[in-house]
């Protein structure tokens, strides 16, 4: 890969610390076990928070993506989102292990989630700048693998530096969960410390650039035109609808995986961290491995293979009673998590016209969030109604199956069709 491609990919290393440590394995489990009144209500409360964040992301992402296209300020907007995410992530430190702090914790995580997801709109839209069409899958997949490595490295650092040492080398009060809360501070620093290479390597176009008001006007006109034109672009429209469902399932799976493991199988924080490390190892290998062959296999086929595997293994995860069986299935599941997302990114990059790529990735984010409240809401509602975390988690499989079924009707675009790409070097 080129130097610019590596700089772009390295941002995956930087920002993957947030979903790994905060959204999935540490802070999510801490909230359910230490802040919320009980794990089941914690899972439900976390679901409603993710629902609210999903609505905000759905409303903002396509508009801001179009504004970034019109104003030529992708780098500046990525910087703003990165700082915003780090700031509210750091504020999670003040959420102490008591139900009175639940609202604070949910607000901080929710706002940081909005910043993180909006940042990915501008980051993903830079992919066509660093990779030719025939290499989109390879660059996207390897970057996603690097992201899992970054999440793994941050998670391992949390385990070895903060969570496991007793007494803490930093004088952290374990009785007040400071060793857990400090992981949010580490994520904030990690994001800022490693997120800068792409900001240097991929500058915005030189002035003159339109003023913000003019960029906003043009951006709104652009996104309106894209939405009106979707009925005349059936492949794009069906792909976005398919992604709407399967990304809802994937995001819900990521957001509640640790909460489920903690509540159903009684995993303590140390084991959840080890579980997260193992999952990130297999997920990173899967993303990088599929990335090397995706340009030959085809992005659509890569997504479908991954979704079918996740559904089959996920069914086992909600049925098994043994913790050892849960571990084994979850680690295998990790292999297919990255490719489903990475191939979606390269699929979209191939479909989007270069001049409108940020706006299209705004629609891409919209398709992952416009009904982003449905997955967490369905899980929260079923969990709250039955008091059973297994039944709540089973709702994820329905969303994945619907997305896969719709994707079967999407025709492969030429730029991602097997045999179109040039041979890998």
Determine the CATH superfamily: MFS general substrate transporter like domains
Count of structural domains: 1
> CA-to-CA gap between the ends?
10 Å
| Helix content percent band | over 70%
CATH class: Mainly Alpha
Tell me the series of helices and strands, N- to C-terminal: HHHHHHHHHHHHHHHHHH
CATH names the topology as Growth Hormone, Chain: A
User: Strand portion, in percent?
Assistant: under 5%
What is the average per-residue confidence, as pLDDT, rounded to a whole number? 82
Number of helices: 18
Structural class: mainly alpha
The appropriate CATH architecture is Up-down Bundle
Sheet of most strands: none
Number of strands: 0
Radius of gyration: 20 Å
Given the C-alpha coordinates, what overall shape results?
globular
Uncertain segments = 419-425
């Amino acid at each position: 890969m080129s130097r610019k491609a590596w700089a772009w990919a390295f941002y995956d290393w930087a920002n993957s610390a947030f979903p790994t440590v905060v959204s999935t394995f540490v802070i999510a489990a801490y909230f359910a076990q230490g802040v919320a009144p009980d794990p089941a209500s914690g899972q439900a409360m976390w679901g409603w928070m993710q629902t609210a964040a999903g609505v905000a992301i759905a409303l903002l992402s396509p508009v801001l993506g179009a504004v970034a296209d019109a104003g030529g300020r992708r780098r500046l907007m990525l910087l703003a989102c990165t700082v915003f995410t780090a700031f509210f992530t750091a504020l999670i430190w003040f959420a102490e292990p008591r139900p009175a702090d639940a609202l604070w914790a949910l607000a901080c995580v929710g706002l940081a989630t909005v910043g993180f997801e909006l940042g990915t709109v501008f980051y993903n839209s830079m992919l066509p700048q660093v990779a030719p069409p025939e290499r989109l899958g390879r660059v996207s997949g390897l970057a996603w693998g690097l992201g899992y490595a970054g999440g793994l490295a941050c998670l391992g650092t949390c385990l070895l530096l903060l969570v496991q040492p007793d007494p803490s080398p930093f004088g952290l009060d374990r009785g007040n969960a400071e060793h857990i809360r400090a992981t949010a501070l580490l994520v904030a620093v990690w994001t800022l410390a490693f997120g800068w290479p792409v900001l240097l390597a991929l500058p915005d176009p030189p002035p003159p650039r339109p003023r913000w008001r003019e960029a906003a006007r043009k951006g709104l006109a652009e996104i309106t035109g894209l939405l009106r034109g979707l009925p005349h672009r059936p492949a794009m429209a069906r792909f976005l609808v398919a992604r709407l469902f399967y990304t809802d399932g994937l995001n819900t799976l990521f957001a509640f995986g640790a909460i489920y493991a903690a509540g159903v199988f009684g995993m303590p924080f140390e084991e959840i961290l080890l579980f997260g490390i193992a999952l990130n190892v297999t997920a990173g290998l899967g993303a990088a491995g599929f990335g090397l062959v995706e340009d030959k296999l085809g992005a659509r086929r890569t997504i479908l293979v991954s979704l079918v595997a996740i559904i089959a293994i996920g069914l086992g995860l909600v049925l098994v009673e043994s913790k050892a069986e849960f571990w084994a299935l979850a680690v295998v599941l990790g292999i297919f998590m990255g490719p489903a997302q990475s191939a979606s990114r390269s699929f979209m990059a191939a479909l989007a016209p270069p001049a409108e790529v940020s706006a299209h990735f705004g629609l891409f984010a919209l398709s992952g969030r416009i009904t982003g409240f449905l997955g967490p809401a369905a899980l929260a509602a079923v969990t709250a109604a039955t008091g059973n975390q297994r039944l709540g988690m089973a709702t994820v499989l329905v969303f994945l199956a619907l997305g896969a079924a719709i994707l079967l009707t999407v025709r492969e675009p030429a730029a991602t069709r097997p045999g179109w790409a040039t041979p890998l070097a």
